[in-house]
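Explain this fold:

***
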Amino acid sequence: MALSGKLIGYVEISKSGDIFHDLLRHKPHEMTAIAPTKLHDCKLHEGERGAVGSVISWHFTHEGKKKTSKQIIESVNEENHTIVFKVIGGELVDELYTSFKHIFHVEPKGDRQVATWTLEFERPNTSVPYPTSVMDYICNIVKDIDAHNHTI
């Protein structure tokens, strides 16, 4: 029996939700220039960038190791800047978890915005850890994007 779990991370951002949503949905390959020590490549395998059903893969370094993640865009909501990515390949689902989703959402908070990442996952057993290091990694990338001083 798989053990379901959920982690939620919040990062206050100064850029608008539109910028983050557009970058993650339509231009994820540009993130490799923003965080080159963390993200090395982003390729489109199926569909068109940003479309539901599109498949992309990431090559990245996490915890000092080069890794990959193949994901399908499961759903998109333009109004509340939500994108759901289901991981379908790579170390997360091939070696650790029986299922894994990233859900990105931006909402206003006063004169700023909050980027929210939700990780939904199933662990095959209690020896597989909660993906807290993955959450820290993702939140640090959000901070890198927000700090990036070029127009994105």
Observations:
- The chain has a mean pLDDT of 92.
